[in-house]
Amino acid sequence: MNLTGLGAGLTAGLAVLGAGWGVGRIGSAAVESIARQPEASGKIFLNMIITAALVEGVALFGVVVGLLAFTSL
User: Fold this and answer.
1) Are residues 58 and 11 in contact, defined by beta-carbon separation less than 8 angstroms?
2) pLDDT per residue over 36-47, tens digit each?
3) C-alpha angle with apex 58: 37 to 5, nearest 5 degrees?
4) Residue 61 CA from chain centroid, whole number
5) Is residue 13 a contact partner of residue 62, using CB atoms and an 8 Å limit?
6) Choice between 71 and 37, residue whose per-residue pLDDT is larger
7) Could you give the CA distance from residue 4 to residue 68 in angstroms, rounded to a whole number?
8) Using alpha carbons only, how large is the chain's radius of gyration in Å?
9) Consecutive H or E run containing 69
10) From the centroid of its chain, how far is CA 14?
11) How far is CA 34 from each of CA 14, 23, 39, 47, 48, rounded to the nearest angstrom?
């Protein structure tokens, strides 16, 4: 039995789960910050988008690594 497929699936799945958790935390913290300081909403929103993009980039990297591992079976 080859466990490479299982490893590839776990890699991609964990990357997506981590990214989902990270983006959720970023959104939650940004909304709380905007509620506390509505005048800084523009800066908070920009930082939120940049950070979410970085988290999504890491997730995409994890999915690509998982797919590459799966295709190298």
Assistant:
1) no
2) 999 999 999 999
3) 140
4) 10
5) no
6) 37
7) 11
8) 17
9) helix 41-71
10) 10
11) 30, 16, 8, 12, 11
d(CA 16, CA 23): 10
pLDDT tens-digit map of 14-60: 999 999 999 999 999 999 999 999 999 999 999 999 999 999 999 99
Task: Give the span between the Cα atoms of 42 and 50, in whole angstroms.
Answer: 13
Residue 16 exposure: Cα atoms within 13 Å on the Cβ side: 10
Structure-token match 């993009």, residue found: 53
At residue 17, what is the residue type? L
Residue showing tokens 């506390």: 36
